[in-house]
Amino acid sequence: MRILLYIVIMAIGALVGYKELASQKIFNKMSTIQYACLLFLLFIMGVKIGINKDVLMSVHKLGFTAVIISVFSIVFSVLGVKFVSRFIKAKKKVV
Amino acid sequence: MTIHILSSIIFGIIFGYFWPSEVLVQNINGLIDFGLCLLLFFVGVDIGRNKNIIDDIKSYGIRIFLVPIAIVLGTLFGSIMSSFFLKLSIFESAAVGAGLGWYSLSAIELSKHSAELGTIAFLANVSREVIALIMIPIIANRIGHMETIAAAAATSMDVSLPIITRSTKGSISIVAFFSGVILSILVPILVPLIISFN
Q1: I need a surface site. Which of A47, A63, B82, B179 has the fewest CB within 10 A?
Q2: Is the ipTM, as predicted for this complex, more than 0.95?
């Protein structure tokens, strides 16, 4: 259901952008508003982590394990996509 | 950009830890949802203004599925490798990795196995999200645009999407959203499945 909501919201945004329903001036301002919203959202996400004291208390005990798993996961998935992106881009050049 | 992202999160954690006001605690999920929807609208606007995006997507074709497949395989391989340095079994650490950044779901699923593994899943997937948010602009500059989607995994359809859109060009944000959707569908299947082998 959540995915559907996201798609609808982005589709409305895409329509506004595609039909240029706002002036260039507003579009330029949007980028600044977007960035401010993004930083605010990240701040709130930080607050959500900070409120969770039980989890924060176990960071010193389990944090190392958690970071090792996440770093390994990120490194190998980046390598995986780096590998397959060649095939995706290769097709693009032909077209 | 990276320094802004990092300081916003750290400032938020400190704020939440020392001043957890009742009003904020009660409304925090609604606030996150509202912010997310607003940002997704802006991502939509960016996509709509980029007129040749449809052609880009058509040229990827079925190969677009290679992105989420590579992310799942890379993540599982990475988390299995990490189990050799940790006190976790292969399946335990693979199940934690299979959260793909979706920390709320993976933590709930794995806390059924043990409270400790649930906490590890929460921390590992939160740190995947935070590291991804910080690294996306750097990965886009140094490694490649498509690779930013890999770091973000399941979060590339929501939280990380605005940063991916800002750091990359053209059709990458559509691929990111698509990959994020596929991965978010897989998380509730993969996590319980993998831990059941343990």
Answers
A1: A63
A2: no
